[in-house]
Amino acid sequence: MTWTKKQICGLVDLTSLNSFDSKNSVTSFLDTALEYQKQGFQVAAICLFPNFTELAAKKLKSSSIQLAVVAGNFPNSQGDLSTKLKECQLALNHGADEIDIVLNLGEFDDGNYDAVISEVKAFKALMPNKQLKVILETGYLKSPERIRKASELAIEGGADFIKTSTGKEFPGATIEAVEVMAKVIAENKEQGLVGLKISGGVRSYDDAIEYLNCVEKHLGLSFITPEYLRIGASSLVSNLIND
User: How far is CA 60 from the centre of its chain?
Assistant: First the structure.
């Protein structure tokens, strides 16, 4: 299938996760997203740090754009579980529709798989009616076997989406990683379909098409909707509009 630029924009979690983000810069960012919507290039969601949740929720209130927030001590997931959960709860209280967390890679590397699953379950328990995206950090995991195992653990813990990358410390998405994740989702469809978020390095129409073709191959055309597929990106939408 040939996807239009507007269809691709409709899958995007438009992201601003900079160390220098401020109320002024985030307000401008939100204004830009709403302007894209007026031009017919509506994104699926806005993705921000938790301290901007309340501001963004008010700004997006009259739109159909979802508000995604990275939480749980993003991007490394280090710290006491209680503080990570508290940060998520605050974001939910302030209007977040979706929460993106990072899988506990330390417990994963130590082989403490029950602990990994339990932690994801604890996050999901906070948001039974909201979307939980679990970031695997595939650029760190590297091997197909490790990416497969992390995908399986996240799904067992109750993830609504599994996501490739934070886009921070490690390399972002690759076709190889997305292919492994898509296969795991397909294999677990009978337990309920889990979404897939491709994040880190998707900047052009051609980049997006390559990933969409990969996802369609393993999960079918019906999977390619904002309900199940997202592309985390900061520059993709503007590039599509201006290209």
Answer: 18
